[in-house]
Structure formats: C-alpha cells, structure tokens
Specification:
The protein is mostly helical and 453 residues long. The protein has 20 helices and two strands. Strands 1-2 form a two-stranded antiparallel ribbon. Strand 1 and strand 2 form a beta hairpin. The chain is globular. The chain starts with a helix and ends with a helix. The structure holds tryptophan.
C-alpha cells in the first residue's frame, strides 16, 4: 500500500523534467530578462548572465537536485538529515524556503497583470500609441486598485488550487499541459520574428558585447538574476527533486533544464526586441516593457498582432503559473510533512499571507498608497523583488554550496552522482561547489555592498 502511495506521488521522468523547467522558465525569462537587458545596456548583462549560468548556476542546480533526490524530504529536514555535523544549525538553511513566499507576493501580482492583458488582447484593446498604452498600464497600476485586487485574487486562488492537488494531480498535470504549449508558442513567435526585418537589430542588441558596460551593479544583478531564473537558492528545485524517481539522471536533467531556460530567455529577448524595433528605435526600459511597449508593437501589426498578443500573454501566464506553484510547494511540504499541518490548512494560511503582502505590494504602486509604502529609494513592490533576487537567493546559494562542499562527506555525493557523472565531471562540479560558487558569489555581494571599497 505504501509503495502504491509513493508511486502516485512521484513525478514521472518527463513530468519531472517539465516541472523543473516549468519552475525555471517564468516571469524571470520573459518579463524580467528582456527589461533588465534594456536597463543594463544590452549585451554586457547578457554575457555576465550566460557566464554565471554556466559556471555557477548549473552546479547549484545539480546541488539542489542531489540534496532533494538523496534526502527525499522537505527542505528543512533535508539539511538536517544529510549534514555530517551541526545538524541544528544547517536545518535553518531550509527555512530559506519561506523566502519563496516573499517572491510569490509580487510574482502573483504580476500574474494578475497578465490575466488583465489577456482580456485586453482578446477584446482588442491594445493601443498603437505609446502614450495611450502607457496610460493604460499606469492607469491600471496607479488608480485601478479594485481590478488589480480582483486579478491578483484569481491568481493566488489558482496557484493555491493547483498546489493543493499535490505533486502528481496538481503540479505534474499542470506542467504536462502548459509547458509543451509554451514551447510551441515561443518557437512560433521566434520563426515569425526571424522573418521580420528588425530581427538582425535585436540580435545585435543582445549579442554584440561591450565589456566597458559591466560594473559591480551589472554583476550583482546578473548573478541574482541567474539564480532567480534557474529557481535556485530557496529549495524549490530541492523540493521537486525529493519527489523525483530515485534513479533520475541528475546531471543530464540539470543541463537540459539550464539549456531550456536559457533558450527561452534568449528567444523571448529576440522576439520582444524584434517586435519593438519594428515599431520604435529605442529599446524601452523597465518593468513596463512587455506591458507598455510590446502591446503597441502588437497593435501596430493589425489583425496578426492581435493574434500574436493573445498567444504571447497566454504563454506568459503559463510560464508564470508553472513557476509560481514551484515557489509555493516548498513551504507547503515543510508545513505538511515536518509540522504535520493539514494540506488544506497550510495552503489557506500561506495563501492568505501571500495575498495580503501581495496586496500591499500592489498598493505600493498606486497613487493613493505609494507614499506610505515607499521606503528609501524603492516602493514595497521593488523592495520585495530586490531583497529576494539580489540578496536572499545569492545567500541561499552560498549556503547550499558551503553545505555540500564542507559539511557533507564527498563520498556520499560521489555515490549519489556516480550514475550520471564521470569522475572527471564530478571533480569539476565538486570544485565549482566548493570554491567557485561560494567565493564568486560572496565576492560579488561584498563588492556591491561597498565593503571592498
Ligand atoms: N525561475 C522562475 C522565473 O524565472 C521564478 C522562480 C520559480 C523562482 N521558483 C523559484 C525563483 C524559486 C527563485 C526561487 O520566473
């Protein structure tokens, strides 16, 4: 009986790959990546991001996978279980999973915006004029609090409903359905963009490297982003891996997921800037990119544009939903398995917390409440994003690499990974986990904080 239960609650092979890809591919790839590229001056940011994914990101992806696959527990229990000593101290790293709830607050707000834009596209309400488009978006954010609350509520309810159904029926099914559709839509968009005259310009914007533009802030943002986009640093991959088949080929899956994630980010960047450059010469900056500039480009393309807009926003919602569920599941797994709280109760509690903090985040963008919800240079919405992406995820990554590099016997790891890695590849990975990842990330954090002068 127990065996049957286990089977029911485990990912199939393809289910696991799609679920981890679904976690990785999200707003980070399609909403954030292109606007950060625009903001940070194009290709310099792309280069640093690609290097970090290759040098540190993949290693940490493997690290989380091996911890989860080996321990088969929630993230807190995992650290406790496999550490050689200091068990109590290390279990606190597992609490970083709760920082996921902070990510989910602004994440679910943006999913609400996407729902709003799916409706706008369906009813052909996108505007050719940049001014009108800008007014529509800022009007929605600054004045239309009720609609935003409504769409945010739908978003949180949907995420909670999927996670409530569990790994197999909820999370796997959703990913099996949404991820293939997302790939198809983005490949379609890519082929269409290649046929447009401005594709070359978008290509150069992303790939003509200009090293002079790399400064300490670009570094930190690119590193933070590579963690965010691969879902590492808070136990999401770890948690999914705890429900993967014991004989999963970790190395292969990690490389595949990193490849798919990077491919979708680059495709999204190419597609978005191709459409954009066809309409305006300036690479628009900031979070408004896919909600202000891109819609004008769609609207300018006529009937074809309407169709593309609908597909684009639906694909974006799929990407975001499959990520959001992976951000919530770690906390739910901790609550239900470690603290024996009922699944329904846990979801209701965390769902309510996410909704309320998310509500304050969306209010911090509004005219009426922005003043009381702005602290220093950023409003609450931007703080939540900055704090989690630039600070908490890198710290989580450092902790995980130090944990595996210094507090878990090397033999155990070699054993776990022998199925998927040759000794040589293992040694490279181990070196990266022991030295490159922690030292690199600590250096970048200190550098940005100004402590290194
Ligand atoms: N990777 C997702 C994105 O790019 C976001 C995400 C999902 C995430 N799960 C995570 C980020 C866990 C950090 C940690 O949009």
């Amino acid at each position: 009986k127990k065996e049957k239960f286990m089977k029911v609650n485990y990912f199939s092979r393809i289910g696991f790959i799609l679920a981890v890809s679904g976690s990785a591919i999200g707003l980070g790839n399609i909403w954030k990546f292109p606007y950060m590229v625009g903001e940070m001056g194009g290709s310099a940011f792309v280069l640093v991001y690609l290097l970090t994914v290759a040098l540190i990101g993949i290693s940490l992806l493997i690290a989380e996978m091996v911890i989860g696959n080996y321990s088969r527990s929630d993230s807190i229990t995992s650290f406790e279980k496999i550490s050689r000593n200091n068990k109590t101290a290390w279990k606190f790293v597992g609490f970083s999973s709760f920082s996921g709830l902070l990510i989910l607050t602004f994440y679910s707000v943006v999913i609400g915006w996407i729902f709003y834009y799916i409706i706008k596209s369906l009813t052909q309400n996108l505007s050719v004029s940049l001014t009108t488009s800008e007014e529509m978006f800022s009007g929605f954010l600054q004045n239309d609090i009720l609609s935003q609350m409504f769409f945010h509520l739908i978003s949180v309810l949907l995420i909670c409903a999927i996670v409530y159904k569990g790994i197999k029926k909820g999370i796997e099914t959703t990913n099996l359905l949404m991820m293939p559709l997302l790939f198809i839509i983005f490949l379609g968009l890519l082929f269409y963009s290649i046929s447009l005259p401005t594709f070359g310009k978008a290509w150069h914007f992303l790939f003509d490297y200009d090293f002079a533009k790399i400064d300490s802030n670009t570094l930190l943002m690119a590193v933070g982003h590579s963690f965010f986009t691969l879902s590492i640093g808070m136990g999401a991959i770890l948690t999914y891996s705890a429900s993967s088949a014991k004989e999963t080929n970790i190395f292969k899956d990690a490389v595949l997921v990193a490849f798919l994630d990077t491919a979708i980010a680059l495709i999204a960047g190419l597609v978005i800037f191709t459409f954009l450059f066809g309409f305006t010469d300036k690479a628009a900056k900031g979070p408004g990119l896919v909600f202000i500039s891109l819609p004008t480009a769609f609207a300018a393309m006529g009937a074809m544009g309407t169709l593309i807009a609908i597909f684009f926003f639906i694909a974006l919602s799929f990407a975001a939903i499959t990520s959001a569920i992976s951000i919530l599941e770690p906390s739910i797994k901790i609550a239900t398995e470690r603290y024996k709280i009922g699944r329904k109760k846990a979801i209701m509690i965390f769902g309510a917390i996410v909704y309320i903090i998310g509500l304050m985040a969306l209010l911090s963008n509004s005219k009426d409440f922005s003043q009381i919800l702005t602290f220093g240079s950023k409003n609450l919405f931007d703080w939540l994003d900055y704090l989690t992406t630039a600070i908490l995820l890198p710290i989580g990554g450092i902790a995980i690499s130090i944990f595996l590099g210094y507090f878990v016997p090397k033999e155990v790891l070699r054993n776990q990974l022998s199925r998927s890695m040759s000794t040589k590849v293992f040694d490279i990975w181990y070196f990266s986990i022991k030295f490159i990842a922690p030292i690199g990330v600590i250096f970048i954090l200190l550098n940005e904080s100004g402590l290194l002068g």
